[in-house]
């Protein structure tokens, strides 16, 4: 089966001459559909760069990135924009909802941007799935942080994307709410055969994933299946993350 996301020998270089930073250095990995993957590593190891390159938010310096078999390097800017709108969902630490729009309109926004009219029943179904039935007409400011992140997850799912990318999606939430959001992401993956790739600093968050990829100095240095928070924390300590 075609992986949801595949990177082959991906290198990303920032800067030039004396100030060159090799943020990704020959990264190859295949993320199967229907899995939840966490990306961990010390500060500066390349996690955000990995996420941005894998999601088509940033171009790679060399190597290839494929989403569901589409080589992103072969797409022009319009093609890349279309792919990001239709085939990729994003969930950020800061929720990034539009304050003036209702929950229903926030959730339908990716479809509108893609030139489609959001189907009310579909929006209602997604809102129910994320535990927000009855909040369709609320505005973001009327919701708790956890509820706002649920709206962001619903918005990420509305296009039925090949993959949802999360950048510290629980970083702004209290522990209990973070656990609920992680449980929701895990359920989405397992019930809908969705695919989630999440960058996190938190070993407990990573333990909700099926697989953890460990980055150090722009390379994948380890991979852990069925992770436990303790196992992930121990691995991070060996990488010098908390030295
Ligand atoms: N736009 C940029 N210009 C120059 N260097 C950059 C840029 N973005 C990232 N870098 C460098 O690339 C390397 C990897 O950065 P990246 O942000 O991907 O790491 P990270 O693991 O996400 O870090 P953190 O956990 O601190 O967010 C770092 O050395 C960083 O300084």
UniProtKB/TrEMBL annotation:
Alphabetical list of InterPro entries matching this protein: AAA+_ATPase, ABC_transporter-like_ATP-bd, ABC_transporter-like_CS, ABC_transpr_LolD-like, MacB-like_ATP-bd, P-loop_NTPase
Record key words, sorted: ATP-binding, Nucleotide-binding, Transport
Alphabetized GO MF terms: ATP binding; ATP hydrolysis activity; transmembrane transporter activity
Family matches, as Gene3D superfamilies: P-loop containing nucleotide triphosphate hydrolases
GO cellular component: membrane protein complex; plasma membrane
Pfam families membership: ABC_tran (PF00005)
ABC transporter domain span: 5-242
Statement: the UniProt record of this protein carries the keyword Heme: no
Protein's UniProt keywords contain Phosphoprotein: no
Database matches in PROSITE patterns: ABC_TRANSPORTER_1, ABC_TRANSPORTER_2
Domain of life the protein comes from: Bacteria
Name assigned to this protein: ABC transporter ATP-binding protein
Source lineage: Bacteria, Bacillati, Actinomycetota, Actinomycetes, Kitasatosporales
């Amino acid at each position: 089966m075609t992986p949801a996301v595949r990177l082959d020998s991906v290198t990303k270089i920032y800067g030039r001459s004396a100030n060159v930073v090799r943020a990704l250095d020959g990264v190859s990995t295949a993320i199967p559909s229907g899995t939840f993957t966490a990306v961990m590593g010390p500060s500066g190891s390349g996690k955000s760069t990995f996420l941005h390159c894998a999601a088509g938010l940033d171009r790679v310096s060399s190597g290839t990135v494929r989403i569901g078999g589409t080589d992103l390097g072969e797409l022009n800017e319009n093609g890349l924009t279309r792919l990001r709108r239709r085939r990729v969902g994003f969930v950020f630490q800061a929720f990034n909802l539009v304050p003036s729009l209702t929950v229903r309109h926030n959730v339908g926004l990716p479809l509108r941007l893609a030139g489609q009219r959001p189907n009310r029943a579909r929006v209602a179904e997604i809102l129910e799935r994320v535990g927000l039935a009855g909040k369709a007409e609320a505005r973001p400011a009327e919701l708790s942080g956890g509820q706002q992140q649920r709206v962001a997850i619903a918005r990420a799912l509305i296009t039925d994307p090949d993959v949802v990318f999360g950048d510290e999606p629980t970083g702004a939430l209290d522990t209990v709410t973070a656990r609920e959001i992680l449980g929701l992401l895990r359920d989405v993956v397992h019930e809908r055969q969705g695919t989630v790739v999440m960058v996190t600093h938190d070993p407990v968050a990573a333990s909700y994933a099926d697989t953890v990829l460990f980055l150090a100095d722009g390379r994948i240095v380890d991979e852990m299946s069925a992770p436990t928070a303790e196992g992930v924390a121990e691995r991070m300590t060996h990488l010098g993350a908390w030295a």
